[in-house]
Amino acid sequence: MSEAAPSSVFRFAPTPNGALHLGHAYSALMNQRRAGETGGRLLLRIEDLDRSRCKRLHEDAIRFDLAWLGVGFDGAPRRQSEHTADYAARLSRLEQAGLVYPCFCSRAEVARAAVGRDPDGAPLYSGACRALTGAQRRARLARGDKAARRLDMGRALAAVAGPLAWIEYGEGTAAETRIADPAAWGDVVLGGRDLAASYHLAVTVDDALQGVTDVVRGRDLLAATSVHRLLQALMGLPAPRYRHHRLVLDPAGGKLAKSRGSPSLADLRAQGISAAEVVQALGFGRADAPAFEVALS
Ligand code: GLU
User: Whole-angstrom Cα distance, residue 45 to residue 269?
Assistant: First the structure.
């Protein structure tokens, strides 16, 4: 398929657990630019499955910021919290195929017995609960022990035929083939103790259900794409094309984060900076000197 197929579908998928900053703005504008260049559609997805951290007031603020920036979307947003049955159905099919097991370990237990680090730097799960017998699992579930659902990575890799890859554009126009390395993530969580679906499962299901052909998101999610490709293969879902773009850095060259005092779009607005100045500083506006400097990775 040509990169500029008229039926391209893009999505911007913020998590409403805080305010948008310049990194989110860059991603939203990049999606808008790509959708515009290809005559494609741009969808908004609200990734609000983590009910303890996601708030409606953050979603409202995000939508206000996006409108302020001038990023518009086709159709109503898909709010993940309203579609938990979609994820549960997919999870139970993977479970029936023997690819998922309940994990009773607490976060602290996972950390104590870690067998290394995953590509995000989080403790790599030892697979302790994989060794439980069917009877042990049933007994623990029957007595009400809370369990996450983990993918049995060994079995999952055996269930897909051959190596997995994806088409990656990065910031450029040339397609590159990337080989997926899902094993580096170990037995990833697909459903949490109190979470309908993990990010990996929900994003894979939603990209397919929304007909997304082009995923444009930050480089910080490049490694996670290996897990997404594996899940697509296991669930028989199509693979979108991927464009993992550069990240906006703070003045010290670090990642933007509220904890490091990075200003939100609302903070910039309160300082009197206009949307046009933000768009221009991020490289999506006029070519003349920007009102402020932005560093990209
Ligand atoms: N919800 C994720 C985030 O805000 C983005 C997920 C994605 O684009 O795949 O970081």
Answer: 24
